[in-house]
Design goal:
Helix 2 packs parallel to helix 5 and helix 3 runs parallel beside helix 4. The chain starts with a strand and ends with a helix. It has a five-stranded parallel sheet, sandwiched between helices. Helix content is 39%, strand content 17%. It is an alpha/beta fold and 149 residues long. It is built from five helices and five strands; from the N terminus they run E-H-H-E-H-E-H-E-E-H. Bound molecules: 1,3,4-trihydroxy-5-OXO-cyclohexanecarboxylic acid. The site of 1,3,4-trihydroxy-5-OXO-cyclohexanecarboxylic acid (DQA) has 10 residues, from loops.
Length: 149
């Protein structure tokens, strides 16, 4: 099973940016966390971080026929990006959305998620553990698919 994990803008600043919201763990720490979860779950993972909307669209398109599923934290593009929504719809891979913070308890503009409209599930407000939940969710979903074959 091959998963693509995408992290959007400013997540590379974890540990520095608004620690009262996002905690003090760094982006390198997040990458290690995801790699450890995937090693344990026997999932092959590629982790991409970009501050650029088009690069995120490119990464989603590159996953077509290459990956089995996508975990995505689109960060601020969550609330603006129809392009990321369309890219997820275009490749048709099962995608799970993750947010470190509880976006529904924050400003109103964070309550809408465009990419989330193409995702089978969203985990929010669990910090790093949300990525683990997303990976396990996709693993379950994808293994159900192979049982039926
Ligand atoms: C975020 C929530 C977004 O509203 C914000 O713009 C981010 C991070 C989260 O993980 O909680 O950059 O996606």
């Amino acid at each position: 099973m091959k998963l693509l994990v995408i992290n959007g803008p400013n997540l590379n600043m974890l540990g520095v940016r608004e620690p009262e919201i996002y905690g003090s763990r760094t982006y390198a720490g997040l990458v290690s966390f995801i790699e450890e979860v995937c090693a344990r779950e026997k999932v092959e993972v590629e982790i991409v971080q970009s501050n650029h909307e088009g690069a995120i669209v490119d990464a989603i398109q590159a996953a077509y026929q290459e990956k089995d599923g996508i975990v995505i934290n689109p960060a601020a593009y969550t609330h603006t990006s129809v392009a990321i929504l369309d890219a997820l719809k275009a490749v048709g891979l099962p995608a799970v959305e993750v947010h470190l913070s509880n976006i529904y308890e924050r400003e109103k503009f964070r309550h809408i998620s465009y990419p989330g409209m193409a995702c089978v599930k969203t985990f929010y407000g669990h910090g790093f553990a949300g990525y683990e939940m997303a990976i396990q969710y996709l693993k379950n979903l994808l293994s159900k698919g192979t049982e039926d074959q």
